[in-house]
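User: Please fill in residues for this 185-position structure.
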């Protein structure tokens, strides 16, 4: 998106970093109401999470962002602010970890597909040179060739098409992990 267009929706500080403004009444609005854990391991409120992730997607990953919580019904508590900051960082670090595992799993799966494709292709060449061209042999030869191409396509699809979203998600989570959290009362 054009930077001038985004200036209509986001505050930009003196360094040119985007500030995502979040209005809450009290500290508990940040977290899932069903989660009664201590602050540093609590789950974020689902609508807040969606809002933050949507805003992060709007802003190019090369730009820096900050999250500013505008708190209306609380007085400043520095200790609680630190716990909340740690909790939000832990939340996004966990999602970064999960996404990294998914990327690794997909790479491993595509490696298997490449190996199967190679095996099918080698078998196809072997049967092409080793057997007579009867109907069954021709069917087997064509099946191995097509199977080899299908497995290779699937491997490339996983590596280059499907994984691009996960790589972008990882960059967004990494940016959110390092984003400063500000509180305004």
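Assistant: Residues filled in for all 185 positions:
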């Amino acid at each position: 998106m054009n930077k001038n267009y985004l200036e209509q929706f986001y505050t930009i500080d003196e360094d040119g970093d985007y500030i995502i403004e979040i209005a809450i009444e009290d500290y508990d609005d940040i977290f899932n109401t069903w989660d009664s854990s201590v602050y540093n391991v609590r789950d974020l409120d689902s609508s807040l999470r969606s809002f933050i992730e949507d805003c992060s997607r709007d802003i190019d990953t090369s730009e820096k962002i900050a999250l500013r919580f505008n708190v209306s019904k609380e007085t400043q508590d520095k200790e609680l602010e630190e716990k909340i900051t740690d909790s939000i960082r832990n939340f996004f670090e966990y999602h970064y970890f999960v996404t990294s595992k998914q990327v690794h799993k997909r790479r491993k799966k595509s490696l298997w597909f490449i190996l199967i494709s190679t095996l099918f292709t080698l078998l196809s060449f072997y049967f092409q040179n080793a057997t007579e061209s009867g109907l069954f042999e021709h069917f087997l030869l064509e099946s191995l060739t097509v199977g080899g191409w299908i497995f290779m396509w699937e491997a490339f699809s996983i590596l280059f098409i499907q994984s691009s979203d996960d790589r972008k998600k990882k960059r967004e989570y990494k940016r959110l992990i390092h984003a400063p959290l500000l509180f305004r009362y």
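For context: The mean pLDDT is 90.
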